[in-house]
């Protein structure tokens, strides 16, 4: 369920690389 995401905070970035390829970068922290 979504309970696992309690206390989860982060940022999602879409990175555009050379040649037009793109990928996602997700940096997150879990609160104690």
From TrEMBL:
It holds the Pfam family DUF3224. This is DUF3224 domain-containing protein. SUPFAM superfamilies: SO1590-like (SSF159238).
């Amino acid at each position: 369920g979504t309970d696992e995401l309690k206390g989860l905070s982060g940022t999602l970035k879409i990175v555009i690389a050379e040649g037009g390829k793109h990928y996602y970068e997700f940096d997150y922290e879990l609160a104690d």
